[in-house]
Amino acid sequence: MSSKLYLDPQLIDQARQYASAIADDVARFIADKTTVATERTVLRLLGLDGVDAEYVPLPNVVVDHVHDRGQLQHGIARFVINGMIQTGWSIQQLGEAVASGAIDLLALPMAPESELIDLGKQAADAALAKIRANRERRDQLLQKLGEGPQPYIYVIVATGNIYEDVIQARAAARQGADIIAVIRSTGQSLLDYVPFGATTEGFGGTYATQENFKIMRAALDEVGEEIGRYIRLCNYCSGLCMPEIAAMGALERLDVMLNDALYGILFRDINMQRTLIDQNFSRMINAYAGVIINTGEDNYLTTADAVEAAHTVLASQLINEQLAYRSGLRANQLGLGHAFEMNPMIEDGFLLEWAQALMAREIFPEAPLKYMPPTKHMTGNIFRGHVQDALFNLIGIATGQGIQLLGMMTEAIHTPLIHDRQLAIESAKYIFNNARHLQDELEFKRDGLMVKRAAQVLEEAVTLLREITQKGLFNAISEGMFADVKRAITGGKGLKGVLVRSQQYFNPLETALRTELGLPPIESLLASTPNEKRGE
């Protein structure tokens, strides 16, 4: 595809080379580490669910049972697979026995390694078969029902009550939405456990639980059959339980998941080691499940100036792309985030926004880019807000975005109500229909404002990526290179949940996923990590 913005392909290649080196450095750093959340995810994928008498999730109970006595570095699978061999119980029976105090996993004799490996492989294959069946079911429904054209119309529901969310989601689908995102309850990203069951109370959103996923998936399948269009479901697998929620989403056939470690580091102060380790495993699950991930670069522009910091968004997108590839994700699963966030009082701001959106499309031609609406400069003037959203929608269709998160005229006032969402959908559909092929009709001046702006942002992104390559991503974050937010490598929430793997570490789910996704074995990454950097 030729560049309408005349972007320098050599500069783009150079940017990707820097981003690739940065991602390789991260991959080597995390290769010999695991976390409590990753180990809990293994249990969930193997079939453990439910809570104990005090309503503590069983995956937490079993992982803590081993972790509290300093043995989790060997991998939780080693102990539960051995327990299943020694007792003949299912993993659910074993987990309930641990919770009741009826069994001590560390007191059991250890089966031969070959038996652990064989049963672990069988259990992992059974888990992946469930995810594969969901992926195939999605493909069947897409073939049967079809779906709306891109940009997908993406809207949120956020009542706090999953049953109220269902009512709003069905209404939005009938009005024309293609993706329903269930906003997560405020603060859930900082919980080091996943709540259990259907929930009816949440602040600013609804808790992400497996039962809530199941309820909403069934509701969207029902309305999809009614209207003859597949409706995609989105939720959040960021935060301290990132891989666990990714696993729950894969088991309940979610289609889109917000999945970005950098967002959690910068805006939730989650320890960078913890969340980058968790992100890798969560993205492997998303990759195998055929999920489109959404990243959070758009948030940088809520704390930094949207004109001055535009290059940080592009640099982060390129880093996220390379990290995603190392987890098995494909280009058509990368909903890389960017946003329409400039001050509307800036002269020609619309042209600058257009240039940046088109630049992202040209640099990531296969990615279903997620374009975010104006939020930072929205006011109580709902009429001006509706116009700002209309301009945002015009750029979305004119630059071929993949996912358009609709803005609401009441964005700055309260959580959007049903009629706000309906007006937003009507406006987007009107603009998308009337400007469907606008991008095919346009050419841009070589010496014009938009071409110069895109070139400037690309050049600044290359300079930033070169600097990050020299410093390393962890140091770059520590120095506040993204979103003007500084985080320390040993700071933030969740660091105590990071462990260096032992030589006997056992994770059959990781092994199976790496094989299925065509990723190199973890041993090859460990071999490329200098000994003095191991366990840093």
From TrEMBL:
Q: Record the organism.
A: Sulfoacidibacillus thermotolerans (Acidibacillus sulfuroxidans)
Q: Which superkingdom heads the taxonomic lineage of this protein's source?
A: Bacteria
Q: Which GO terms describe its molecular function?
A: catalytic activity; cobalamin binding
Q: What is this protein called?
A: D-lysine 5,6-aminomutase subunit alpha
Q: Where is the D-Lysine 5,6-aminomutase alpha subunit domain?
A: 5-510
